[in-house]
What does this fold into?
Amino acid sequence: MSKQINVALIGNPNTGKTSVFNALTGLNQKVGNYPGITVEKKEGICKLPRGVKAHIIDLPGTYSLNASSLDENVVIELLLNKKDKDFPDVAVVVSDVENLKRNLLLFTQIKDLEIPTILVINMSDRMEYKGISLDIKYLEKQLETKIALISTRKNKGIDKLKELITKYKELSVKPCMDASSIDKPYFDKLRKAFPNQLIYKLWLVITQDVNFGKTNRKSIEAAANFKTKSKTDLKHLQQKETIKRYQFINDTLKKGQTIDLESAKDLRIKFDRILTHKVWGYLIFGVILLTIFQAIYDWSSIPMEFIDSSFASLSEWTKNTLPEGAFTNLLAEGIISGLGGIVIFIPQIAFLFLFISILEESGYMSRVVFLMDRIMRQFGLSGKSVVPLISGTACAIPAIMATRNIESWKERLITILVTPFTTCSARLPVYLIIISLVIPEGRFIGLSYQALTLMLLYLIGFGAAVGSAWILNKILKLKSKSFFVVEMPNYKLPMFKNVALTVLEKTKAFVFGAGKIILAISIVLWFLASYGPGENFNNAESIVTEQYASENITEEELQQKIASHKLEHSFIGITGRAIEPAITPLGYDWKIGIAIISSFAAREVFVGTLATIYSVGSDEVETITNRMAKEVDVKSGKPLFNFASGISLLLFYAFAMQCMSTLAIVKRETNSWKWPTYQLVIMSAFAYIVALITFQLLK
Amino acid sequence: MNTIIQNILVFSALTLALVFLVKKFILSPKKKSTKGCGTNNDCGCH
It folds into this structure.
């Protein structure tokens, strides 16, 4: 049996930690589907020499072991709990060659925990460019560790790192500095009170609300022979500790690192000056957004058409090949049509994540956060709220969890409440299908009206988020202080492997996450649309045949009338009719009403629901778009999806809180049902009113 | 015979679908750990 060891990847944000993780694990990784940010942890398996397997845990980025947010606590809790099943046999601290001084602060703290630690110095390919040279042997000696000088971009040094991990038992666990020297008498007392505990662990527990094993802060405070200090004194000692560590790091780097500023060639300042400029910055960002939306439309049209027609053919093939009966109909009309409604959006979702990933990888996203901070402040939010709002374009759930690093409770609460307005990827299928039905295909200065509409919807979502934040800032009477610090990483050419893995992981999460729900809902909906109570449903054939006996209609038309009659009197038809009075003023019929209700589980279910409802009883091979385009309003005889009802529907989905999972996560993050209830009621009411006004004005 | 088998399959699929949806939206939100999605690839957001 091969041996497995736990390896924790730890490091400051933007040191290329995720690239190291990808280089070590490749596709053998399980990743939480939180776009953009590592909120919890990623795990993967790396095969090492001599049959050793490494279980790699990618921990959230942290600047030090002095936690200021919930995410940073994850790192400390793992490193302090020896009994945790993920407790590392070896810690790999990833640093960036250009920010070694700052990165080493965390390294020295981890070394003091007496865990075997390897120092990875990443981005070595930039050393020459930046005029940096390192004396690795000297650094290894001073830091009591082994160093792997690597470049994930050039795929250099990874084998050396694997070798060091394999030989982790040879690593020294000696601390590189004595933290207790900041207050000898105090640390001596602590040592006497808890003789069997590691002194630096105790210090971390005292200064933070972190538990490890049976010893926690309260038990230390309760110890009879030890009196802890006041919070102010502890803070003062923490500052002293940090200064001492930096003195040690400075001394080490004075000999171990040389930087020749004259040979450094840096375009970064020039780029930053333009990209964060108060006019050009916004203009460039606007152009980038326009390009992204246009590309999403242009590049995905061919694969989308292919997927749509493939599912229509598959449905037809199933009907023709399998024996006639209820299950064959369920497969052809329910499951295949429902799934087709989600698979069709894979190209667009993949392109969206491709662009987001490129922007993040290149370092541009941090500039956007910096730019947006200026706007955010006008609305009572800080730049830190931008990260959740941008993450929200993928999914509101990770975005809401990303608010954990906002220190101010008021700002955090406001961000949680407004984030669901941001256009998430689940809204995308709804937008795309409605836009394709009601917005003409023409172009304006090379940009299609459809792409412009989509971009406008994203801006409306963002506008609604900041607008409601402004209102909440005025209403909520909560006092809090806030500050905003953002690190500007260096500009980099995005790494293909990282981009590809992100696109794959996000698309997979979207398809499989949504796919299971859509599959289940499609089955239930098909059942409700194919069965019904009473005479009207059971005797549909005779009723309709009798009704049209005197009229000269073809057999095909008669079958369509029967199918339509059955659907109207099925379980779903009866439910739909019951809610119709509430949605008719918005320009919708009962079928759209059913789709809106079922999409409360997840917004993208809307398309799958309509695809299933329109397929039931139909023998024609039709794509989803064509089926929806053919729907006619019974009263007016006009297409059901017209400009007025389409725009009304788009705005309804832009503002409505149509996501049960988001409500559950808001409850969890706010620890109360009060906020998700407000969110649901206010957003739904607002969406209804806006959709109503829009339809009544445009019809 | 074919009709009976097809009906059994339909009702089995319906039961499985209902059980899945109840578990997903009624039972699981209460059981979720405080750590969130963690390593699970399906956070239930879709």
Summary: Residues 31-39 of chain A have pLDDT under 50 and may be disordered.
